[in-house]
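Key result, reporting period 2: structure in, sequence out.
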């Protein structure tokens, strides 16, 4: 079968053997696999920094159809529409037992598909049966993008605790950010979106943002005006560069939350006089399985519809290049 592998020489489309499900595993025929900015970060690392062996098939946003179940698998049968829950945990720590596998305290040597184990950018992928979630009634492109872009945005917002009337700044209206705008709209928040691309700002306004501003130095004053100088309740930073973190610190009001979702290498100076009093900083990771079920339900009910462009596997490398250049609107997903 065809698969998009990460090798020690970068990405390449390769012919690889079709995988077979072992005990407790399921063979999934991929119907859509999303491309995440995190893949670019992973691909930019030196092979010895990765902590897993190459080559490996990329793609951690999985939607598919069950093709075959391995020995001992109950609950799934050929033809079921599924989405992949990514985080892997030890199963016994307080994080895992409490349903927060994404914050497993111990870590697992089992890697998520696409992030160390062979992933979804292929015609077939093998996953643990317990990592699948029913996705019937959700279009494949949506289901794929919801497993990370949708889920991570939902999780980050839930942890901020923002509700009706809160003013929230979204920095970076990309795959995750454009999901965040919709999720905040559904919570009744006032949204100020920042990006460096006009098309992303237009998308944010269309999705319900009250204001969409170019992310440049000095924009803090415009944001302050929107809150009559009080500062905003929360900032979701999907970029996390020095510049965006500095901007976030500059616009947050007292007792606000800064959620750093992007994996940029920026630094945030903190301390009594560097940020507003009572500022809480969060570094959310992915989301819980329950929250994945929630975003799939939000999509089924029409309250969350991601902007997802589909490409064939042969166009995935070019699509990653566009993603790196900021030229993707919403998400891109491969349809193998
Ligand atoms: P994306 O490329 O789709 O979106 C990034 C957006 O930021 C783009 O719209 C781009 O135009 C915009 N941008 C770039 N520089 C900017 C600036 N200075 N100010 C404002 N906007 C700017 O990426 P994505 O897939 O949505 O991922 C966003 C980030 O979240 C990445 O860093 C990714 O690695 C990270 N991520 C984190 C988690 C987690 O669990 N914490 C999960 C998935 C992705
Ligand atoms: Zn654990």
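The corresponding designed sequence is given below.
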């Amino acid at each position: 079968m065809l698969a998009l592998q990460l090798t020690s020489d970068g990405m390449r489309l390769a012919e690889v053997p079709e995988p077979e499900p072992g005990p407790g595993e399921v063979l999934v025929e991929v119907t859509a696999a999303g491309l995440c900015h995190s893949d670019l970060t992973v691909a930019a690392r030196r092979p010895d920094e990765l902590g897993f062996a190459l080559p490996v098939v990329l793609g951690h946003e999985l939607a598919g159809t069950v093709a075959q179940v391995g020995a001992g698998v109950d609950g799934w049968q050929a033809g079921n529409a599924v989405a992949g829950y990514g985080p892997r945990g030890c199963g016994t720590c307080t994080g895992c037992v409490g349903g927060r596998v994404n914050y497993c305290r111990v870590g697992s040597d089992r890697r998520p598909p696409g992030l160390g184990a062979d992933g979804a950018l292929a015609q077939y992928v093998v996953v643990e049966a317990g990592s699948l979630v029913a996705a019937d009634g959700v279009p494949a492109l949506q289901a794929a993008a919801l497993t990370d872009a949708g889920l991570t945005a939902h999780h980050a917002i839930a942890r901020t605790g923002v509700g009706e009337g809160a003013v929230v700044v979204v920095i970076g209206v990309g795959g995750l950010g454009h999901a965040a705008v919709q999720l905040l709209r559904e919570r009744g928040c006032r949204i100020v979106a920042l990006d460096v691309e006009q098309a992303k700002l237009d998308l944010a306004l269309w999705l319900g943002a009250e204001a969409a501003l170019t992310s440049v130095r000095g924009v803090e004053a415009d944001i302050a005006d929107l809150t009559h100088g009080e500062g905003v309740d929360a900032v979701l930073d999907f970029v996390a560069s020095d510049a965006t973190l500095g901007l976030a610190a500059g616009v947050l009001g007292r007792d606000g939350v800064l959620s750093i979702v992007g994996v940029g290498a920026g630094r945030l100076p903190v301390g009594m006089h560097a940020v507003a009093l009572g500022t809480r900083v969060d570094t959310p990771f992915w989301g819980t399985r329950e929250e994945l079920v929630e975003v799939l339900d939000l999509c089924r009910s029409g309250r969350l519809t991601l902007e997802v462009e589909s490409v064939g596997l042969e166009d995935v490398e070019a699509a990653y290049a566009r993603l790196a250049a900021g030229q993707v609107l919403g998400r891109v997903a491969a349809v193998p």
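The chain has a mean pLDDT of 97. The chain has two domains: 2-136+306-334, 153-282. This case is discussed further under Risks and Mitigation.
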